[in-house]
Amino acid sequence: MKRTYQPKKLQRKKEHGFLKRMKTRSGRNILKARRLKGRKKLSA
Q1: What is the pLDDT of residue 44?
Q2: Rg (Cα) of the chain, in Å, rounded?
Q3: What gap in Å lies between CA 17 and CA 24, rounded to an integer?
Q4: How far apart are alpha carbons 17 and 20 in whole angstroms?
């Protein structure tokens, strides 16, 4: 049986990447929250 997670780098970037987050207002809020929390990585 195949495992659930079959990683694809491009698909991951497209869905959860920095540029995708920056496009929408809510996405920018997510990045802001992660910055305030002090996250090392902001997005995928």
Answers
A1: 87
A2: 13
A3: 12
A4: 5
Rounded Cα–Cα distance for residues 21 and 28 (Å): 6
What would the pLDDT profile of 1-44 be if each residue is shown by its tens digit? Answer: 999 999 999 999 999 999 999 999 999 999 999 999 999 999 98
CATH classification code of 11-44: 1.10.287.3980
Contact between 34 and 7 under an 8 Å Cβ cutoff? The reply is: no
Domain boundaries, the chain: 11-44
- Neighbouring C-alpha atoms within 13 Å toward the C-beta of 31: 16
